[in-house]
Structure formats: structure tokens, C-alpha cells
Automatic annotation (TrEMBL):
PANTHER family: FRUCTOSE-1,6-BISPHOSPHATASE-RELATED (PTHR11556), SEDOHEPTULOSE-1,7-BISPHOSPHATASE, CHLOROPLASTIC (PTHR11556:SF35). It catalyses: beta-D-fructose 1,6-bisphosphate + H2O = beta-D-fructose 6-phosphate + phosphate. Pfam families: FBPase, FBPase_C. InterPro entries: FBPase_C_dom (IPR044015), FBPase_class-1 (IPR000146), FBPase_N (IPR033391), FBPtase (IPR028343), Fructose_bisphosphatase_AS (IPR020548). One of its GO terms (cellular component) is cytosol. It comes from the Bacteria. Mg(2+) 2 binds at D117, D120, E280. This is Fructose-1,6-bisphosphatase class 1.
Length: 335
């Protein structure tokens, strides 16, 4: 049950029963993410004022130049989740390997792992464009009481127990699902409280926005090129509108509200695309499906893919169901 302007805390308590795995552990999990998001939001909002937007001088797992806010966000989420002994393991875009969390609760009670992209779209920070945090939560598959193992993280997306994102935009929002719909909470920075501003988020019946980096057009597979031409054709409800922020969370958040498809295809320069299956595609796919949409790699449901390594990349098409089905049709017809 979602009543507008309910606080996040009230909402979690009222809907705790839906999280059939545990009493109270979801609250602790979402509350720790809520706290970390407030801390990151504070830093992101003043990024232009202090020398924190510049590069940290390091390079992360992906070979990408690590922005200082990336490092701050990564450390903040890891510390918050660790201090509260809420989860037994964390995998992050910023860390080569997963982190094993020891602790009393991890020895006998706790059974969750979290995968996180702590600050997605961070290259937008120094141009003041919105960025986001993406998280994905699983119940571990190895015995409780032993250290987590790689198989706890390499689960298909259809095993997620919760997933969500925080968007640090014109306002800061926490959007998440536990498999019972998608709800969006907006932070009132003056009070430090999140209020239910977007209950039961669902894609509109039809979508007319397509989001893709058309600079890579010449490198796309033929089917993707054909679909982009379909979006631009003067007929029926087209041409569609092209909108691409270059921040996954922002593009998908807008497309859930207004209707549209986000695409990051494979190409001749990136043979599996750019986005990571575990902590970008799977959580956004869970959200999209719970909002009545779909997410595919062009051939099959993203959440059915069996991961083989932590940082693997997959082609990603996510949005209104009929738009995803249409691009799949073009991709498969061109093969
Ligand atoms: P490109 C940000 O780096 C990101 O992972 C997503 O947030 C975003 O949608 C995409 O990459 C942008 O990539 O190659 O279009 O700049």
C-alpha cells in the first residue's frame, strides 16, 4: 500500500511483510542505503565548490579514470553497509574483487549480498549533469556462517530480492523495488527525510523517446541501425524524440515516467556493449519489469542471463515492452 507523502521509513515498515525473506532485514538494508545516499548527495551537491570533482588520480577496474566523488561514494556505501553488519558481501564497479564482510551477524544471521555501481555517469559530474547510484540485492546461495563466495554474486537477475537507484538530479530520489512494484521517494534536504513522491511507477502505455549514443551509429549491428531509422521515419506515431543524457539512471528514470527505450548495443568497438550485467543491467531490468517494461540483450531477457564474471558487459535494451520487442525484431531479422 502506498500513500503519497508517506516517509520512506513508514513505507518500509508498512510493506515489510512483502519482503518474505526476513523480518526487519530489508528495513536495515534499505535504511543503510538511504543513509549513504544522503551522505553522497551532500558531496555531489557541492561538487562544484570544492576540489572533489577532479580525478582521484587512480584508475578503476574498468580502466576508467576514477573521479574523486566515485571514490567517496564507493567508500561511503561500503562503510555504511559494513558498519551495520547488514550484508555478508559487497561487489562494486570500483573494486576488482568482491569484499567479504566478517562480523557477528554475518556468522549466523545475515544472508544478503549487495552489488553496487556507487556513482554511475560520474564523467558528468564536472559538467553538472545528474548522476546516480545503482544497487542490486541477493540472498546468498552458499551456507550462512561461511565467508561469501563468487557464486553468491554470480546469480541471474531473476534471483534479485531488491534493486533500485538513487538519482542525484534537480532533486535527489531513491527508487526501488522488492518485486512488488516500483516506488520513488524524493529527499527533502532540509529535513533529511525521503517522502513517497512517485507511488507505483509504471511506464506509460506507449513510448516515443529513444535514448542511444548515435555517435556510435556506424559501429552498430545492422539491426540496431535499422531500428534507429525506424524511430526516425515519418509515419504513424513517428519520428520519435531522441533524448540521451549519458547517465543511465537519468535516461531510464525519464523513460519510465515519459515512455521510451534506452539502448547500449554491442558494436564493432565494444563487442559486448559497455554496461555491466551485475550492477547496472540487472537492477535496472528488475525496476523496468516491475514498472511494466522489459529489458533484453537483443535476444533474451536480461534477468535470465547466467553471469560468468563480476564485471561482464552485455548489450542492453530497456524500456516500454513493445519498444524492446520491436528492436529485438529488427536485430533478429538482420542476423
Ligand atoms: P557513452 C556512464 O559511464 C555509463 O555507464 C551510463 O551511465 C551511460 O548511459 C553510458 O555509460 C554512457 O556511455 O559511451 O554513451 O558515453
Amino acid at each position: 500500500m502506498a500513500t503519497k507523502n508517506q516517509t520512506l521509513g513508514e513505507f518500509i515498515i508498512e510493506n515489510q511483510a512483502e519482503f518474505q525473506y526476513s523480518s526487519g532485514e530489508l528495513s536495515r538494508l534499505i535504511n543503510s542505503i538511504r543513509l549513504a545516499a544522503k551522505m553522497v548527495n551532500h558531496e555531489v551537491n557541492k561538487a562544484g565548490l570544492v576540489d572533489i570533482t577532479g580525478s582521484a588520480g587512480n584508475v578503476n577496474t574498468q580502466g576508467e579514470d576514477q573521479q574523486k566523488l566515485d571514490v567517496f561514494a564507493n567508500n561511503t556505501f561500503i562503510k555504511t553497509l559494513t558498519n551495520r553488519e547488514i550484508v555478508c558481501g559487497i561487489a562494486s564497479e570500483e573494486n576488482d574483487d568482491y569484499i567479504i564482510i566478517e562480523g557477528q551477524r554475518c556468522d549466523n544471521k545475515n544472508k544478503y549480498v549487495v552489488l553496487i555501481d556507487p556513482l554511475d555517469g560520474s564523467s558528468n559530474i564536472d559538467v553538472n549533469v545528474s548522476v546516480g547510484t545503482i544497487f542490486s540485492i541477493y540472498r546468498r546461495v552458499t551456507p550462512v556462517g561461511t565467508p561469501v563466495q563468487m557464486e553468491d554474486f554470480l546469480q541471474p537477475g531473476n534471483m534479485q530480492v531488491a534493486a533500485g537507484y538513487i538519482i542525484y538530479g534537480t532533486s535527489t530520489m531513491l527508487v526501488y523495488t522488492t518485486g512488488h512494484g516500483v516506488n520513488g521517494f524524493t529527499l527533502n534536504p532540509a529535513l533529511g527525510t525521503y517522502y513517497l513522491s512517485h507511488p507505483n511507477m509504471t511506464f506509460p502505455e506507449t513510448g516515443r523517446i529513444y535514448s542511444v549514443n548515435e555517435g556510435n551509429y556506424n559501429h552498430f549491428p545492422q539491426g540496431v541501425k535499422d531500428y534507429i531509422k525506424y524511430c526516425q521515419k515519418e509515419e504513424e506515431d513517428r519520428p520519435y524524440t531522441s533524448r540521451y543524457i549519458g547517465s543511465l539512471v537519468s535516461d531510464i528514470h525519464r523513460n519510465i515516467i515519459k515512455g521510451g527505450i534506452y539502448m547500449y548495443p554491442k558494436s564493432s568497438v565494444a563487442n559486448n556493449g559497455k554496461l555491466r550485467l551485475l550492477y547496472e543491467c540487472n537492477p535496472m531490468a528488475f525496476i523496468a519489469e516491475q514498472a511494466g517494461g522489459a529489458a533484453s540483450n537483443g535476444y533474451e531477457r536480461i534477468m535470465n542471463l547466467k553471469p560468468s564474471e563480476l564485471h561482464e558487459r552485455v548489450p542492453f535494451f530497456c524500456g516500454n515492452k513493445e519498444m524492446v520487442e520491436k528492436v529485438e525484431e529488427y536485430i533478429q531479422k538482420a542476423d
